[in-house]
Amino acid sequence: MELRFDIATIIGAGLLGASLGLALKDRELAQEVRGVGHRPASLDTAKAVGAIDAAYLDPVEAVQEADLIVVCTPAALVIQMLDAIQPHCRPEAVVTDVASTKAILCIHAAHTWPAPRRFVGSHPMAGSEKFGAAHARPDLYEGTVTLMETLDGHDPMAYSTVKALWEAVGSRTVVVSPEQHDRIVARTSHIPHIVAGCLALVASGNDDIQPFVGKGFRDTTRVAAGRPDIWRDICLTNEAAIAAGIDAMMDELGRIRAMVENKDGEELARFFSAAQEARQKALGE
Questions:
Q1: Based on the domain organization, do 139 and 194 belong to the same domain?
Q2: Domain containing 235: what range?
Q3: Number of folded domains in the chain?
Q4: How many Å apart are CA 80 and CA 20, to the nearest integer?
Q5: Most CB atoms within 10 A, among 27, 92, 281, 282?
Q6: What is the DSSP string of the chain?
């Protein structure tokens, strides 16, 4: 399908939002890109890097006349934002989001947006430990996967448009139910971030560890440098799946602790071999 938006409104002009704005402009997919934020300085940065054409502090004003609206706020603010803009969106507007939790958002939208629903929940698996519009890149979404909620009560054209949007900026779309999304992403993204934070805290202790830090520590804890407020909101919006993942992690740590205490070399070898195979399978190697 031919994809061209007259006005695209991006609510939340941080790394993901500003990168989407750059991608839309770089590929000439939108005639005008509006950016919404709560800090004028952040919007000034987004405008300076070329991610948006116009800056707004009021999302209600910014969505009027827009034919594409993408909510790029932290996860805990998405429902509040959807409720605020829903009465003011054009009937033909296509609306989506980028939050990394889906069930709570998609269930709420299913009950509050008119049918057939033109809000389609999506989650591009893109990002960086860096944040803010200053680090935005037009190729941020290239080679990524975007998870989309299953077609269920949506307007078919709006659903197809969201799919085409992510594919147009270089992402591959995968359809998954919101509940399955949250279960899987908790284990592949949310728990790893929590573990990275724990590793950083355990390693630092009361010692100056900087002379002892190698590449392995840097690689393993890289995501712990991400924005604390974003990860706080993720934990607060996917609490059940994250709690289950933490329980599973504690079980694994208990098993490996017993192996170490008992000096069980055979079990340790099997553990590391199984972990190696599991990683290769997850990465398709």
A1: no
A2: 181-283
A3: 2
A4: 22
A5: 27
A6: ----EEEEEEE--SHHHHHHHHHHHHTT-EEEEEEE-S-HHHHHHHHHTTS-SEEES-HHHHHTT-SEEEE-S-HHHHHHHHHHHGGGS-TT-EEEE--S--HHHHHHHHHHSPSSB-EE-EEE----S--SGGG--TTTTTT-EEEEE--SSB-HHHHHHHHHHHHHTTPEEEEE-HHHHHHHHIIIIIHHHHHHHHHHHHHHTTS--GGG--HHHHHHHGGGGS-HHHHHHHHHHSHHHHHHHHHHHHHHHHHHHHHHHTT-HHHHHHHHHHHHHHHHHHHT-
Phi, psi angles (nearest 5°) of residue 5:
-110, 135
Of the residues 159, 176, 193, which one is the last residue of a structural domain? 176
The domain boundary residue, chosen from 119, 148, 176: 176
The C-alpha torsion from 275 through 277 and 281 to 284, rounded to 10°, is 120
pLDDT tens by residue, 180-237: 999 999 999 999 999 999 998 988 877 788 888 888 888 888 888 888 888 898 899 9
Residue 258 makes CB contacts below 8 A (sequence gap 6+) with 264
- Do 170 and 224 sit in the same domain of this protein? no
154-173 exposure pattern, b = at least 16 Cβ within 10 A, e = fewer: bbeebbbbbbbbbebbbbeb
Asked if residue 165 and residue 198 are part of one domain, the reply reads no
Residues 86 and 226 placed together within one structural domain of the fold: no
In this prediction the pTM is: 0.85
The fraction of the chain above a pLDDT of 90, given in percent, is: 76
Q: Same structural domain for residues 185 and 254? A: yes
